[in-house]
Amino acid sequence: MAMESHTEEIERTARSIELETAIPCALSASYKGSFAYKTVKDRMPIILTKLIDYLYRKREVLASRFGKESREDLKQIIGHLSQLRSEIQTNKPLGTIEVDSEDRVLWKQFLSAAAVEYETVTWFDSPWLLVECYMYRKIREAFEGSIFFKNFDPWSEQKENALEAALGTVKLTSDHLGKLNQSIEPKGEKKLFCEFLELSLWANRHDLSISAGELQKHHSDPVAKLVELRQNLVVDHTDLVWDHFNKTSRGTVAIILDNCGLELASDLILADYLIQTRMAESVHFYVKSMPWFISDVMKTDFYRTLDIIVACPELSLLGERWKGYIGNSWFIHENRFFTLPCDYSAMQNVDPELYATLSNYAAVILKGDLNYRKLVGDLQWDYIVDFDQALRGFRPTSLIVLRTLKAEVVVGLAKGMAEKSLAVNEDWLISGKFGVIQFCPKQP
User: Fold this and answer.
1) Spatial distance between the Cα atoms of 35 and 248, rounded to a whole number of angstroms
2) How far apart are CA 142 and CA 149, in angstroms?
3) Which residues pair with 252 in a beta bridge?
4) Per 3-state DSSP, what percentage of the chain is helix, strand, and coil (rounded to 5)?
5) Could you give the CA distance from residue 166 to residue 314 in angstroms, rounded to a whole number?
6) If DSSP codes are grouped into helix, strand and coil, which group holds residue 427?
7) If you ran DSSP here, which 8-state letter would residue 297 be given?
8) Which residues contact 190 (CB under 8 A, 6 or more apart)?
9) Among 48, 72, 215, 291, residue whose Cα is nearest residue 62
10) What is the pTM of this model?
């Protein structure tokens, strides 16, 4: 019996060494049957087709807004997008970013590095993270290179519609903030904190890039659904997050945002909770610097969200309070790093100033699937690999990840959890029905 235990210990040690030393391959469309393959083969061309169709249907509206001279501009943009779709479908090599922009040199470096590592840098044979980011960057280039549409966001209408459709749910969620005015037992304080954390997490299910731009319906009270959803948490570090906020002195928190609509509203409710309870002195929001993955938040989206909420009679007081936070307790930043194809482990080299800034926060909350993929390198990790190992040195401060699973990568699972989740739902990795609340403390 002792010999058997010793053998098991040796096997565990060997397994641990193997996991620590091996860096897995990147997720890629070269693996047929993978979600990356489905994305490049089907989802990405569909996204482009819908965008082309939208621009064509709106051509008269856009001509009246930008002037008749803009018609030719729009034709050229549609032509660029059609060519991009064809290049994906025929697996062409990825070309350079041609417009004169501040990230052009960086993109050239990333593509050159990929050419060294891979035989051909094509849509189906290169890392999924690279080609998906490249598609959205080329979409932006089509507008950047125009005369009349340089600053046009082709998804702004969809993002606004997503928020409008979710206002009833936002009202139900925001009503939960009213409990802060009541006398709450210490246990109740923790319960309320956990609920706002979970509401922010599960709002991440509503991602227009996953639904290819289709609006998702909101039916029920999200607070009432939390108990049911809790069983779908494959990693739950809520207690660690609670302990962190209670043991650290009141400091500054950053939230790296993901989607507009219900998710952004839920993130703002969480931020409001942190300010009102003095768990955070201030909250710094990080947004994208260009239209990205259809529904990702930009500065214009942030302010437009506040305007829509203020205009809603049932939410106007909430919206006015949030507007009052801007510049006092809430601060908004955009940074080009978040639209680059590199993962977070490269931040110290690519943007050391941003890394240093994140290091000064008491905690950084990272929202959503793309942030998670970039945290762990979008690599084919074993599910039971430790989260901190998969970060590969990205440890600027304490990290809190709120993400619903919509890509075939997740780490930090207990042994047997992947098999248990698969038995419940064969699409558990990509359905958005399972989630993680993961915590990694700042290194001493």
Assistant:
1) 40
2) 9
3) 282
4) 55, 10, 35
5) 13
6) coil
7) -
8) 242
9) 72
10) 0.93
